[in-house]
Amino acid sequence: MSTATTAPPARTKPALQEPGSRSRIPWRMIFLGLLALLFLTPLLWMASTSLKSTAEVSQADLSMLPQDPTTEGYEKILGAPQTPVEQWFLNSMIAATGQTILVLVVATMAAYALARLSFPGKRIITALVLATLFVPPISLLIPNYVIVSELGWLDSLAAVIVPGAAGAFGVFFLRQFFLSLPVELEEAALLDGASRWKIFMTIIVPLSRPALATLALLTFLANWNDFLWPLYVLFSPERLTIQPGLSTLQSAYTTDYATIMAGGAIASIPVLILFLISQRFVIEGIARGGLKG
What is the rounded distance in angstroms from the CA atom of residue 128 to the CA atom of residue 122? Predict the structure, then answer.
């Protein structure tokens, strides 16, 4: 009776590594670390200056770390009745959140129509929408001011929320993302009897969460950091947003840098938290938004 012989398992050769691949990784990490430090330095300097006293900030020899940390700047900006920082903060949150919601609603529907629907003049309308991206925003300052004044919205948060709710960037960005989605999903839903609105709400919007999160973050940041437009349309101290409100801390003859940096540190907290929460969606949305044109 013959016995079957089993061949020994074949040995797999180790994968060949590219020459110098090990040496490139540390240098790449070092470069990224230095780049991150470069971007973090202004934030660290702002936080450090906000913990310094007025006398230390005025010294000729500045240091990164405060010699005698103090919360004097925060006490000045939070305790003075002429600087209602809490109200400025609330106004900025309302304005940025309101404009973000409007931009998402308007841009999502407009971008889907330009990406998927067929109607006369579609190419011309798309070209006109994209052409507005080349118009300098400063040139729209006076026309927008006249419109807001005629509507009676001056010195109100509506003047800061509504005018930027129909920007072309959101339409262009979401249109690029919608074009990257497989059209077969919509065709299958149409065969099942679904309407365009149902397809939009149950298929397109859920699949577009990365792009919507990215657009929401960019819109929120743009409104939160806007300085010029709120300065023109908001007059009362209690109606100011955080950016023009912080500018009132600088007088004509002296500048309290510690107090201003304390205000900047307070203003940067929501932005940093929002970015940390939506970082994954932002990277995915930007990566997929430019796949197809």
Answer: 10
